[in-house]
Prior knowledge:
With 233 residues, the protein is an alpha/beta fold. It has helices at residues 22-33, 47-54, 83-95, 133-146, 151-167, 175-184, 187-192, 196-207, 213-216, and strands at residues 14-20, 37-45, 59-61, 75-78, 99-102, 115-119, 122-126. Strands 3-2-1-4-5 form a 5-stranded parallel β-sheet, sandwiched between helices. Residues 221-231 have low confidence and may be disordered.
Amino acid sequence: MRYYPVNLDIKNRACLVIGGGGVGTRKVKTLVECGAVVTVVSPEVSGPLEKMADAGLIALEKRAYRASDLTGKFLVIGATDDEALNRRIHADAEDLNTLCNIADRPEICNFILPAIVNRGDLVLAVSTSGKSPAYAKKMRKDLEKQFGEEYEPFLRLMGAIRERLLKEEHAPEAHKPLFEKLINAGLLDLIKADRTEQIDALLKEVLGKGYRYHELLKKPGPKGQAFRPKTEG
């Protein structure tokens, strides 16, 4: 296995995207959705990136790339159609031991980006190690059908229950059978069918009084959605 699978926490970390076309725009949107502090460097940028900059979601430098742009950056993504520039970005990042991805050029990356299905806290990543982005895309679409939007509220509910049980000083080892009962009793299917009364009845049966579906979900969470990168890389 060539690549070491890992999920990076990039919230509030400085990230750089070089290139403002369609590919760069998709990379930027994903970084922003994950909470990164994003700077885009490109002489020309897409309309969506202009709007994101106007809204204060990203910093935008409409100029050519400079090696100094990498200073202080946790992660860099090169998304240009200039092969010489892409290789220069890679070399500069290597000198600084910075995480670097060059779109569609796995041979000059020290990490690659998988195809992603995102359902709130459920993240499914598919990688062919850069060998067949088209097949990774097909697998992503298959997974999108298999894992629907119901997984987002399901995991929010499970997390809220876990947090409450911990506050009530339940021993963590006692949680496992409770969650297994909820799962095996078809909680996910009930959420998919939006059967609130049956969900509440199941929560009461397994956990006791005071556990109600919509009350536990009052704290807003991220909406489940599928990221749609054109290619793995």
